[in-house]
């Protein structure tokens, strides 16, 4: 209790300033696709309802994180399968409403089939690489680095490997199938983001960026260079400059397109004859070190798992 506030006083502590958004791969992609979507997610933090596929992605990422916590010789398919149940139990314990959000209840037959589909993704993972031969220096690491004094970059890195010769590899798991050209460009945008973060933090260009698609067992490998990453940094600065131009008066405009079909916010989008909520103003508090909202709070993803955006991967189900 404040020593200057009498007992029983109705005085309340001042409300903490809302945290300023950082730029993550997901939020940068949101702004490029639809500035209003960026506002709804990064500023208003409007609720969104996760899908089974998205939550399955979060679950599979959690299992792979646990797998790499094991000694290398123990990273075998049987171990991954045995980790699935405990990982699901932990997810439900921290996010109880997830079961009823996705299923009719814990006895829903669809739940067992859904867990089986997660097992299938894990089995496919082992066809893409042998984790016993991987030296991962970090798994599901929160990356925090400032590109410029007023441009904070934040995101969760699935895995960072270091070869015996010191070469660095950035690895990202995708629980969907390998995408069409646009989706591949979006995935590569995410990898370049993390490659730039590694360059800023370690002063070394990653030798390899690798995407593992667990739905169809395909992979994509790419080797960036320093000039390319510096150009990518310029792109991020341009995106952030556009965000800052829109921030003072909330001039985040909608961009109607095919992605609108799966958007949770059409009811409040002017492009769909909706009315957005009043603009709450650009947050002025400390930089948000999280990537997504916490569960149960006003303006969160409905039922979002703790610490997610909506998942430690920067986007739930990535």
From TrEMBL:
<dbReference type="InterPro" id="IPR038726">
    <property type="entry name" value="PDDEXK_AddAB-type"/>
</dbReference>
<feature type="region of interest" description="Disordered">
    <location>
        <begin position="298"/>
        <end position="318"/>
    </location>
</feature>
<feature type="region of interest" description="Disordered">
    <location>
        <begin position="1"/>
        <end position="27"/>
    </location>
</feature>
<keyword id="KW-0234">DNA repair</keyword>
<dbReference type="InterPro" id="IPR011335">
    <property type="entry name" value="Restrct_endonuc-II-like"/>
</dbReference>
<keyword id="KW-0547">Nucleotide-binding</keyword>
<keyword id="KW-0347">Helicase</keyword>
<keyword id="KW-0269">Exonuclease</keyword>
<dbReference type="InterPro" id="IPR011604">
    <property type="entry name" value="PDDEXK-like_dom_sf"/>
</dbReference>
<dbReference type="GO" id="GO:0004386">
    <property type="term" value="F:helicase activity"/>
</dbReference>
<dbReference type="GO" id="GO:0006281">
    <property type="term" value="P:DNA repair"/>
</dbReference>
<feature type="domain" description="PD-(D/E)XK endonuclease-like">
    <location>
        <begin position="23"/>
        <end position="270"/>
    </location>
</feature>
<keyword id="KW-0067">ATP-binding</keyword>
<dbReference type="Pfam" id="PF12705">
    <property type="entry name" value="PDDEXK_1"/>
</dbReference>
<protein>
    <submittedName>
        <fullName>Putative RecB family exonuclease</fullName>
    </submittedName>
</protein>
<keyword id="KW-0227">DNA damage</keyword>
<keyword id="KW-0378">Hydrolase</keyword>
<keyword id="KW-0540">Nuclease</keyword>
<dbReference type="GO" id="GO:0004527">
    <property type="term" value="F:exonuclease activity"/>
</dbReference>
